[in-house]
Write a structure and sequence with these properties.
CATH class of the largest domain: Alpha Beta
Number of strands: 16
Distance between the termini: 16 Å
Oligomer: single chain
Largest sheet: 7 strands, mixed
Helix content: 25-40%
Strand content: 25-35%
Shape: globular
Structural class: alpha+beta
Radius of gyration: 20 Å
Number of helices: 10
Length: 320
């Protein structure tokens, strides 16, 4: 029987082939003779009972894929599919990890264990990308989770120089703010009112201005590649969606050791595809909801990490 993948993602209009891992990898999947379908998650009804939800997936077969074309996917008409038809599910719904995200993804917990899910709920919404680094204090930047305004003020005041404030469940640098440790409380009050009930505070790491932010992408025990993200002039945000540029930089031995330890810890939870972010030698985030940069890894390194990824997916699938 033909192997079949399912890409679960945002609406087509929200997918950007310049960044999107699902678009990038779909071409390689098709070239191997593997069938691949697309599920627009937002088009499905999260209020269905789980059995009805998983047996009535409104999917479209991807017939061809070319990130340089418009449209980047040629697709068949929508049909209804049962989750049991799939060997691999690639969950590519972007954050925020809000109630809509949870309502959809909790259904997939009931999918057959024989299906390789990248990544598998509920860990994708029970854990936070911004705070999971606290599990690895040897490698991670000092991080505080603030659950009240007073805790936010105390965490910022405790920093030596500047603090980085982050909402708990956003992505692509949305809501990240740099504030001096003696900032006016009114500024913090406004930030808290916007992003409560939980805010993350980290020490500001000057290495972001000197050497950028390194993303290392891993799948299982395999390093797919890395890309350095350099903030735009006048910015300290190293997110490609926020204007940062991509460059080549080889990971250090310590960074690779960190990747191996994090993967060994998170893979058993169903978190197989990881985007680990480093400023200098400090781990700042572990992205597992919908990690990207595969396109940029290919570009700056002159490699085909998408082929390596599908090789690894096929190995993992056969071990399910």
């Amino acid at each position: 029987m033909r192997t079949r993948y399912l890409i679960v993602a945002d609406p087509i209009s929200a997918l950007n082939p310049v960044f999107d891992l699902g678009v990038c990898v779909s071409r390689e999947i098709l070239e191997r003779g593997i069938a691949v379908d697309y599920l627009d998650l937002v088009a499905h009804d999260p209020d269905l009972e789980t059995e009805a939800y998983l047996s009535g997936l409104p999917v479209r077969a991807i017939e061809s894929a070319d990130a340089s074309s418009e449209p980047f996917w040629e697709m068949a008409e929508r049909r209804v599919a049962d989750v049991g038809q799939y060997d691999v599910i690639l969950h590519r719904k972007d954050p925020p990890v809000d109630q809509l995200f949870v309502r959809h993804h909790h259904h997939f917990i009931a999918a057959p264990e024989s299906i390789l899910q990248i990544n598998r709920p509920p860990a994708t919404y029970e854990l936070s990308e911004h705070t999971i680094g606290m599990r690895y204090p040897e490698f991670s930047a000092p991080t505080v989770i603030c659950t009240s305004f007073d805790e936010l003020v105390a965490a910022v005041r405790a920093q030596d120089g500047e603090a980085v404030c982050k909402p708990k469940n956003t992505y692509c640098g949305i809501g990240v703010s740099f504030v001096p440790s003696d900032v006016d409380p009114a500024v913090l009050r406004a930030y808290w009112d916007e992003w409560a009930p939980e805010v993350i505070v980290q020490a500001y790491l000057p290495a972001i201005e000197e050497s950028g932010d390194l993303r290392i992408l891993t799948l299982g025990d395999q390093v797919l590649g890395s890309v350095l993200r350099i903030p735009a002039d006048g910015s300290r945000l190293a997110n490609l969606h926020q204007g940062a540029t991509a460059a080549r930089l080889e990971p250090t031995k310590r960074q690779l050791r960190c990747c191996a330890e994090v993967a060994a810890d998170l893979n058993p939870l169903g978190l197989h595809l990881l985007g680990l972010d480093f400023i200098g030698e400090n781990l700042t985030e572990v992205n597992f909801t919908s990690p990207t940069t595969l396109v940029q890894i290919n570009q700056v390194n002159g490699i085909r990490a998408d082929r390596v990824m599908v090789d690894q997916l096929e190995r993992m699938r056969k071990l399910q």
